[in-house]
Amino acid sequence: MAEDVTASEFRVEKQRANAIVTLSTGQVMRGCFFTAGGSAGRAGPERVGDLLNADAGFLPFEIHGGVHARTVLFNRRHIVIVALDDNEAARDPGYEVATRRVVSVLLSNGERVTGAVRVYQPEGRDRLSDWARQREIFRYVETAQATLIINTAHIIDVSEVDS
Fold first, then answer.
1. Contact between residue 57 and residue 124 where contact means Cβ atoms under 8 Å apart
2. Is 122 exposed, middle or buried (0-12, 13-18, 19+ CB in 10 A)?
3. How far apart are CA 23 and CA 34, in angstroms?
4. Phi and psi of 131, rounded to 5°?
5. Contact 158, 132 (CB under 8 A)
6. Contact between residue 25 and residue 34 where contact means Cβ atoms under 8 Å apart
7. Higher model confidence: residue 122 or residue 107?
8. Mean pLDDT across the stretch 58-83?
9. Which label site among 4, 22, 49, 115 has the fewest CB atoms less than 10 Å from its CB?
10. Is 85 helix (H, G, I), strand (E, B) or coil?
11. How far apart are CA 14 and CA 125, in angstroms?
């Protein structure tokens, strides 16, 4: 009996997005997330930020290192920081005109991150406190070294600093 090798109509092609993930255990893993070529929530390809904010629960991550790559399922609640090669935050509509705030963020693992956040609100509603009330759990922080996506559940405090 011949096996049917035609592609499924439900198959979604994925791209690999390189990242370094810091977990609540302190482990740091280098590898990649699998993102779709299109996004249901906005124009263009899915971003790692979209993937992290899409659902609760687990998501796949391919760990690089050792002899072979392997895929694990990470619980989103235990992801503290994702560092990206790509500045995908700049793909947000309005990125260039959004208010830029330079902040210092203390995380539950004791790490302090200094970088810039973008507040996508009209003038007068573009304070750091407005950024803090956004509903996305994972937020972009742009540092001099990388674009980070930080889990707000692991933010102890955030304050504005001089740029």
1. no
2. exposed
3. 18
4. -60, -40
5. yes
6. no
7. 107
8. 94
9. 4
10. coil
11. 37
Q: Give yes or no for residue 9 having a pLDDT over 90.
A: no
CB–CB of 26/78 below 8 Å? no
Spell out the residues 6+ positions from residue 36 whose beta carbon is closer than 8 angstroms to its own.
12, 13, 14, 15, 45, 46
CA-derived radius of gyration, the chain: 18
Dump pLDDT digits (tens) for 18-68: 999 999 999 999 999 999 987 666 767 899 999 999 988 999 999 998 788
Sign of CA dihedral 26, 19, 138, 75: negative
> Mean pLDDT, the chain, as a whole number?
91
Which long-range contacts link 28-32 to residues 24+ away (Cβ below 8 Å)? 29/61, 29/63, 30/63, 30/64, 30/65, 31/61, 31/62, 31/63, 31/64, 31/65, 31/69, 32/61, 32/62, 32/64
Higher pLDDT, 10 or 114: 114
Compute the distance between CA of residue 96 and CA of residue 90 in angstroms, rounded to an integer.
8
